[in-house]
Design goal:
Strand order of the largest sheet: 12-19-16-17-14-13-20
Order of helices and strands: EEHEEEEEEEEEEHEEEEEEEHE
Distance between the termini: 62 Å
Shape: elongated
Length: about 290
């Protein structure tokens, strides 16, 4: 009897502040109360996958601010992209944003972000933890998918051992972190719950990205939006990019791990195409909302 093929593994040496497995997410389950999750900076994740020859929806590691370090048990081609950082293999500097060879048992270290917030580590063959509802993404709100990484964790690594030439990088348009985050916004289903002055404030005031932001939502610091209606709003469906206004009056932009329902009024909706920049906006980044 032929033995099953050996499973390749990726060992977590340094987990960083928050490192999760992410792919293209699990859209289509909101009616069951399951959010989409997935890489917050989806273009960066897709580009990292392209550079190692993976499908665009292959699972990658998403790091937050402090990077991470991992050790594969077989040779693998990897890319560290997204937020710029120093990258080393066994302490030797290697290219950021381009394919590099990582020998078996060597430590690939993606250092702290030097611009931006979230980095993406892609490996030829992709990461292959057990999918949940068709996705390998971690959802921090629901707890679906792999848990955030801790030191000593082990992840299964797909594909055969690396061999042959590195994939060509070509023109690599890695965007920089926004010096100012400008988010276009469409009027939301509950914009009439706010005063005319509040709607003007939303589109003219200077906000900043709050340090309390996370994968669930980008929170803001700035002027509060005054409501014209003060009754209770029954919970209703929430979409990616919804700009919800909690009782403190400061807008929150829902990101990939957002709840599928909510009871605070939605004053506007930011188009999905604009949210990748929000994923890289560090706390304190100036923020403006503009009419879409």
């Amino acid at each position: 009897m032929t033995p099953p093929p050996a499973v390749s593994r990726l060992y977590v040496v340094r987990a960083g502040a928050l490192t999760t497995v992410q792919d293209a997410g699990r859209p289509g389950w909101a009616h069951l109360g399951v959010g989409r999750a997935g890489a917050l900076d989806a273009p960066a994740a897709r580009l990292a996958n392209r550079l190692v020859g993976n499908p665009p929806d292959a699972a990658v590691l998403e790091t937050t601010l402090t990077g991470c370090a991992v050790r594969p048990d077989r040779p693998v081609v990897a890319v560290v992209g997204g937020a710029g950082c120093r990258v080393t293999v066994d302490g030797r500097p290697v290219a950021w944003g381009a394919p590099v060879r990582v020998p078996a048992d060597a430590v690939l270290d993606a250092g702290p972000a030097e611009g931006g917030l979230r980095g993406y580590l892609a490996f030829a063959g992709g990461l292959v933890p057990e999918p949940v509802l068709g996705s390998r993404s971690a959802d921090l709100l629901s707890g679906l998918g792999p848990a955030p990484l801790g030191e000593g964790d082990v992840l299964p690594l797909g594909g055969p051992a690396a061999g042959g030439p590195l994939p060509p990088a070509g023109a690599v348009p890695w965007p920089g972190a926004p010096a100012e985050l400008v988010l276009p916004v469409h009027p939301g289903p509950r914009h009439d719950w706010f005063t005319e002055a509040a709607l003007r404030t939303l589109l003219t005031a200077a906000y900043r990205v709050s340090p309390h932001s996370n994968r669930i939502g980008l929170r803001t610091e700035g002027p509060a939006l005054e409501r014209s209606r003060h009754g209770e709003l029954p919970s209703e469906g929430m979409v990616l990019g919804a700009v919800q206004v909690p009782p403190d009056g400061r807008p929150v932009v829902f990101l990939n791990d957002h709840p599928t329902t909510g009871g605070y009024p939605v004053v506007g909706v930011v188009p999905e195409r604009a949210l990748a920049a929000a994923a890289q906006a560090v706390p304190g980044t100036p923020l403006r909302f503009v009419r879409a």
